[in-house]
């Protein structure tokens, strides 16, 4: 298992991920949640029985990658933030949950296991931004076209999820939680060969970015 490394105010923080969790249907507004359910329904994904959802995935899927290999052309990312619990702190960074949309129609949990959670290489201390979290912007581009644009006010808060983690005994060093996403712009092609997600603090103009290329692997020899 490869550790993640974050630049936190010029200091490198290393984290070995032991637990990786993907939140789903985690909009603070139920209208936004319904819109996301409708987006997925267009792709044949059945609606969940409850919201929000929480999907455990293999810890090795948390990575800081420049290239994401995929098996076919129907995969895509999602703009998200991530909580990273360290030995002595809680960090906030950007993330992109890369998902196999063909597999998603058979099971959301399966599809999340089939692709990585790509995290940024920089992070903020949660304590340093918690007084204005709702102002922080979350934006994604697929193939250079803006596909998602919102703020952290659109999603359940980091503190909501920290309480959930504490209740489940998971608020431990090495736990990473990915936030769930915001609605996509209608009629935008999400099946792109490049993805970029930005987390921007308007008070400091500081931006945390994750960006990567998507490469389809050769056909299997079988």
Protein described:
By secondary structure, this protein is of the alpha+beta class. It has one domain (4-216): Fumarylacetoacetate hydrolase, domain 2 (Alpha-Beta Complex). It is built from five helices and 17 strands. Strands 3, 4, 5, 8, 9, 11, 12 and 15 form an eight-stranded mixed β-sheet that branches. A five-stranded mixed β-sheet has the order 6-17-16-13-14, with no helix packed on it. A two-stranded antiparallel sheet has the order 1-2. The mean pLDDT is 92. InterPro entries: DUF2848, Fumarylacetoacetase_C_sf. One of its GO terms (molecular function) is catalytic activity. This is DUF2848 domain-containing protein. Pfam families: DUF2848 (PF11010).
Summarize the model shown.
The chain has 222 residues and is α+β, with helices and mostly antiparallel strands.
Protein traits:
222 residues; alpha+beta; Fumarylacetoacetate hydrolase, domain 2; 8-stranded mixed β-sheet; 5-stranded mixed β-sheet; 5 helices; 17 strands
Write the layout of secondary structure elements.
Elements: E1 4-8, E2 11-15, E3 19-24, H1 30-42, E4 53-57, E5 62-63, E6 67-70, E7 75-76, E8 79-85, E9 90-97, E10 99-100, H2 101-104, H3 108-113, E11 117-119, E12 124-125, H4 126-129, E13 137-142, E14 145-151, H5 158-167, E15 175-178, E16 194-201, E17 206-216
């Amino acid at each position: 298992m490869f550790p993640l490394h974050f630049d936190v105010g010029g200091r490198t923080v290393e984290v070995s991920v032991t637990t990786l969790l993907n939140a789903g249907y985690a909009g603070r507004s139920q209208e936004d949640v319904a819109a996301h359910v409708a987006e997925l329904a267009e792709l044949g994904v059945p609606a969940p029985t409850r919201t929000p959802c929480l999907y455990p995935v293999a810890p090795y899927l948390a990575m800081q990658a420049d290239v994401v290999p995929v098996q076919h052309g129907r995969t895509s990312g999602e703009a998200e933030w991530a909580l990273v619990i360290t030995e002595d702190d809680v960090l906030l960074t950007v993330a992109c949950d890369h998902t196999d949309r063909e597999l998603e129609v058979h099971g959301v949990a399966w599809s999340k296991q089939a692709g990585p959670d790509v995290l940024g290489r920089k992070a903020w201390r949660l304590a340093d931004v918690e007084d204005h979290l709702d102002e922080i912007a979350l934006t994604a581009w697929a193939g250079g076209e803006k596909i998602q644009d919102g703020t952290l006010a659109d999603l359940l808060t980091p503190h909501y999820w920290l309480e959930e983690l504490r209740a489940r005994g998971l608020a431990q060093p090495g736990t990473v939680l990915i936030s769930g996403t915001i609605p996509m712009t209608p009629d935008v092609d999400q099946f792109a060969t490049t993805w970029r997600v930005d987390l921007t603090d308007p008070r400091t103009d500081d931006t945390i970015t994750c960006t990567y290329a998507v490469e389809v692997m050769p056909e299997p020899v079988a």
